[in-house]
Amino acid sequence: MLDLKIAAGTGGQAASLGDAAYREMKERLIRGKYRPGYKMTVRAVAEDLGVSSTPARDAINRLTSEGALVYAGPKTVIVPVLGEQDLKELTTIRIALEGLASEKAAPFGSEQHVELLDEIQGRINAALDAGNYGEALWHNKEFHFHVYEMAGLPHLVAMIESLWLRVGPSLYNLYPEFAQERYGVRNHQMAMEALAERDGAALRAAFENDIRDGYRLLRLAARRSARA
Amino acid sequence: MLDLKIAAGTGGQAASLGDAAYREMKERLIRGKYRPGYKMTVRAVAEDLGVSSTPARDAINRLTSEGALVYAGPKTVIVPVLGEQDLKELTTIRIALEGLASEKAAPFGSEQHVELLDEIQGRINAALDAGNYGEALWHNKEFHFHVYEMAGLPHLVAMIESLWLRVGPSLYNLYPEFAQERYGVRNHQMAMEALAERDGAALRAAFENDIRDGYRLLRLAARRSARA
DNA sequence: TTCGCAAGTTTGTTGCAACAAAATTGCGAC
DNA sequence: GTCGCAATTTTGTTGCAACAAACTTGCGAA
Questions:
Q1: Using CA atoms, how far apart are residues B87 and B208, in angstroms rounded to an integer?
Q2: B127 CA to chain A: closest CA distance, Å?
Q3: Are B91 and B50 in contact (CB under 8 A)?
């Protein structure tokens, strides 16, 4: 059991225990620590995080209002189970928003940025080689958001992050496909080239492709688990 | 002081007091009851809404995590004061998202929908004639969301709603321009025609225009209050 | 064996009091 | 009169206990 009181007091700029609990839950969600359908109870979260019920409740409430958790009954919130409809809609929104962010980021492309992205891509590949799926997903997120943040549009980045939060848990369902296909590599390569040339349209296209490729896999996994 | 306990118990599908408080605050925000910069304190909200501190705190937390309220200090949340940068960014996002929603809604256009929109437009005009600015804004929101909801994309509608929540309070700053210019009328007329013909591109253009027109006014108001 | 109801258990909600930190006020010295 | 420090007030945070609603379990009757 980790002690969030220390994290809140010293570490990552979390002012309150509720804040620390929220951040911790958010990271766990993105890292796929909780699977779709998992039931979140105030007391269980409080136990897991070593805090009392109030901060745990705060975290759950915030996550729910962002759509990272959903109501499954009058008194139960769960990690969302995304159906094909949801996946399709979220993908459409992601293309609109992440396409926008990448296009706006293109003019800020530089040698340094491309180098950093290349480094991150190296970490993705290494994690894939090591079979560490969670690490690969994490670095994949870093790759995307490093580009999105270049545009200097904080509201947009926050909205995109909340989208990733919703899709995150489902990403874990497509284990071995992701590792085998390495679908991101080509698209990421294209993205880096587009960024080097500051070509907004090309950068957008690369990211849209990446999102669509991911969607195909996700849809596959959704169908598989729907049959089960 | 209104009694939310009754609202939660009987009325608009609010399961808990915290939920009812959240909805009430949301509506007040969109209706412009609170001005930008207004400081939200737990105890004040609890007093206003006639509930204890816990549901009030819940509501403030949820609103904050959605961006409808923002942190202004270590221990203070306020109604956001949007600068020109924020306004520009939010407008860009709105065009991407509301443009998408309207385009996807176009194929569902029908005689009935256009009739209803025409009715809503009538209410906007009537409110404007009566000088009732709040009513006009409210019906304006109805007009937009009636179209957006036609597409059947609930995640998208929720995200757009959270954008309106951020801009809502600032809308009140542009009183008398809105009433005088009646900027929405032409664009809404175009939208209804496009919807009748199920022309996605035209519908998107009409809404994009509407958003941009609103942005011009908002920017004007932001500059005015920045000078003050 | 199966169905149904009742008792017990789990779980979210709410109000509140104690605590800590920040802001404000007021008093006194210079 | 002004500046600075200390006391007071305001305010967010946290933990907890009481309550209510939903769910689960198990026993008994058909």
A1: 15
A2: 32
A3: no
SS3 content of chain B, % helix, strand, coil (to 5): 75, 5, 20
- What's chain B's length in residues? 228
Q: Do domains A4-78 and A84-227 have the same CATH topology?
A: no
- Please answer whether residues B59 and B22 qualify as being in contact, where contact means their C-beta atoms are separated by less than 8 angstroms: yes
pLDDT greater than 80 at residue B52: yes
Q: How far is the CA of A53 from the C1' of D18 (A)?
A: 15
Task: Give the integer Cα–Cα distance in Å for A1 and A45.
Answer: 11
Beta strand extents in A12-156 (DSSP E only): 39-40, 70-73, 76-78
Question: What φ, ψ does residue B3 adopt, rounded to 5°?
Answer: -100, 100
B154 in contact with nucleic chain C (CB within 7 A): no
Closest by CA position to B212, among listed B94, B101, B121, B68: B94
Give the closest nucleotide to A71 (alpha carbon vs C1'): C12
- Ranges of each domain in chain A: 4-78, 84-227
Looking at residue A224, what is its pLDDT? 78
Distances (CA, A) of B139 to B48, B116, B126, B168: 25, 12, 10, 13
Residues 22-81 (B) with a CB less than 8 A from some CB of A: 22, 57-58, 61-62, 65-67, 74
A192 pLDDT above the threshold of 60? yes
Q: Tokens 């209410």 label which residue?
A: B123
Strands B39-40 and B76-78: antiparallel
With tokens 């009748």, the residue in question is B196
Reading the block at residue A38, the tokens are: 């998992």
Give the integer Cα–Cα distance in Å for B175 and B180: 9
Q: Which of A21-25, A110-114, B4-8 has the lowest mean pLDDT?
A: B4-8
| Rounded Cα gap, residues A142 and A155, in angstroms | 18
CATH 1.10.150.20 fits A4-78, yes or no: no
pLDDT digits 0-9 by tens, A129-148: 888 887 888 899 999 999 99
Find the closest chain B residue to A56 by CA distance.
B58
| CATH 1.20.120.530 holds for B84-227 | yes
The encoded tokens of residue B135 equal 């009513």
